[in-house]
Amino acid sequence: MARFENKVVIVTGGGSGVGRAASFAFAREGAKIVAADLDEAGAEETAAQIELSGGDAMAARTDVAVSSDVERMVERTMHRFGRVDILFNNAGIAPRGTVVETTEEDWDRVMAVDLKSAFLCSKFTIPIMQKQGGGVIVNTGSNCSLHGYPNLAAYTAAKGGLLMLTKQMAADYKKDHIRVNCVCPGVIVSPMTEKVWRDEGKDPEKMDKSNMQTPEEIADAVLFLASDAARQISGVALPVSGVHPW
Fold first, then answer.
1. pLDDT of residue 205
2. Is 64 inside a domain boundary?
């Protein structure tokens, strides 16, 4: 039997990168997928590919930084599938800049997408998990949750906050049999990383990717944390960064 047979998994940022890879991986193991993303076309493509492979999935256009959008997405999930077993808070953005260089607008947007979104999605799914008798939340942190990194002030602050939110939720909801963990990648070969490179005037095709992770490698770690194999693991940051100079 597949590890996630008939489990319902919400994946934010499910339209590309790690979110898409995790959606595919969960679906291959029997899960029903909600691919939530502001990029509606990307979410629909993820869901369509899963269904073409014989799986069960739906796309949900969602601005995860907006409470009403998140609430509507969760309501649609319940209408379609009737439960939520796993929440993968994965949506994120990473504009470059030091504290001096970062605009207030960029700071607020990073905090909203990278940190507030996990608060909102958890806020609306935890009561469902409580009624069901348990569940799992996995948050996408970063090595920046653990270390400072040049020119990523807002992103590092948000990911550090996300790690502590992970620990707080793990403590608050242990009694409800809800596990909460944080996967912390290094540098992922993804559309977001490529955008950062292009913004810096670099050619993604010429970048050294030997010490970077693929979305599929991060998805493997996410599935482990979501599985019964990690049933005694909660409130931890799992670095998945290979041989990295950090």
1. 77
2. yes
Active site residue 155: yes
Instruction: Provide block-wise average pLDDT over 10 residues at a time, the chain (246 residues).
Output: 93 97 98 98 98 98 98 98 98 94 97 98 98 98 90 96 98 98 88 73 74 91 98 97 62
pLDDT in the model for residue 12: 98
Selected catalytic residue, list 155, 163, 170, 190: 155
* DSSP 8-state secondary structure symbol assigned to residue 66: S
Examine residue 242 and state whether it is found in any structural domain, yes or no: no
Count of domains for the chain: 1
Tokens of 121: 């999605």
Q: Tokens 């950062």 label which residue?
A: 196
Q: Is residue 2 part of a domain?
A: no
Q: Is residue 246 part of a domain?
A: no
- For the whole model, what pTM was predicted? 0.93
Q: Long-range contacts made by residues 63-66, C-beta under 8 angstroms, separation at least 24?
A: 63/38, 64/12, 64/13, 64/36, 64/38, 64/91, 64/113, 64/117, 64/120, 64/121, 65/109, 65/112, 65/113, 65/116, 65/117, 65/120, 66/120
